[in-house]
Amino acid sequence: MKSASGTDKKLIGLFPDKGVLRWLVAVISSILILALNFFVHVSILKFIVSGSLQPLLLAIVAIIWGVVGVYSLHHSLNFCVSLYPYEWSQRLQHLIFIGPAITLLIWLLLLPALRTFRLSFLDKLGETFVGLENYKYVFTERTMVLALQNTVIWVIVGTLSCVSLGLLIAILADRSSYEKIAKIFIFMPIAVSFVAASVIWKFIYAYSPTSDTQIGLLNAINTAMGGEPKAWLTMMQPWNNYFLMAILVWMMTGFAMVMFSAAIKNVPDESIEAARVDGASEIKIFFAIIIPYIKKTILAVTTSITIFSMRVFDAVWVMTGGQYGTDVIATKFYKEYFTFNNSGTGSAIAMLLLVAIIPVIIMNINQGKEEEY
Where are the alpha helices (DSSP H) in the chain? Predict the structure, then answer.
């Protein structure tokens, strides 16, 4: 954004910085410019929503409007700021920069969270106050307790598996002559959406009766070795939860590997060589030198995957629909709120998930601040 001192020299000459006339011109001009922007963009939005254009043309118009609209809004606000006295223009510049972001955060995050919190104390229709009944249901109802247990298993087993495998592969790949090729193949799954990955793994676990051809990879191998086909996702409870976690491990191990690999390369070679000269084994070097150097990265990766595990939904919903004892918090929320139209219980589940995730997010943010300093 341009400095106000450089853009409004002419205006300073016409209206003194502390003059009433300058303030009057600045305020009126700002109101008119903002009103014009609002009218133009609302008119364009109504035109797009009306559906009078062909889909392809509509997409082109929307893209052009997005780019040109942001550009014009930026320069309009910049011009409005330049109209004010220098001291005030400097203050307003900060508001221009962070104002839209704060507005979106309040509109899209804070207000919905407050509304959800209010609904969690109301009945199914969101009309009658029921106190803590919805929260009592969350912590006592049988299927809800099972969903909480499964979520804890996802967080502990899934996160530890991703972090451990990612760290192991990063160490091994760092010493391999095929490091780049290995990392490409291991990192590749993260480029696939969770839904697409779930569809892939659904074919791997697919089950057909003994008399039919097995299209599932696992059952095809199992029957080829003389075994019987198994319904991995339906009949093998509670192991089916761990089979679902394989999708998380398959996708997030590559992310952990890349983060750890970058951190390991920053470990001073002098420290490692000195330890080897002193007769330290590779295992001792790993735990005494490498781990302390990359502990901040380990914490950052762990918290990121923990958040991902807490809100897992796609894999469970695509693979089992939350049936056969595989429900997690996110699938229970979806069922209560959208399938059973129970806004009270659904909101209580959502608040529980939010409260569980917030401490992990704060820990992640604090860790990022520590790395900056």
Answer: 4-7, 9-14, 20-49, 55-82, 86-105, 111-119, 133-140, 142-153, 159-174, 179-187, 194-204, 217-224, 239-264, 269-277, 282-285, 291-310, 314-319, 329-334, 343-372
